[in-house]
Amino acid sequence: MKEFKRSLKIVMFIGIIFCLTKSDANAQYDPMFSQYMNNEMFINPGYAGSRDYISTFALYRDQWVGIDGAPTTQTFT
To answer: Which residues pair with 58 in a beta bridge?
Structure first.
């Protein structure tokens, strides 16, 4: 029972921290990727968990370099 209470406190602490952190969010759109074939989880989310190891992938794309307000795309899976 003590272990359950401790686990519950940890989960609640993480949840509170998650709720209090500010994150900039924008409207959703179809991202433009030129290397999408390297990110299997972008093509098929069912790929997650199909391997016996943890797979991570990060991608950044900056379009129209040098123009103010140019679109950028970032992803981390």
So the answer is: 76
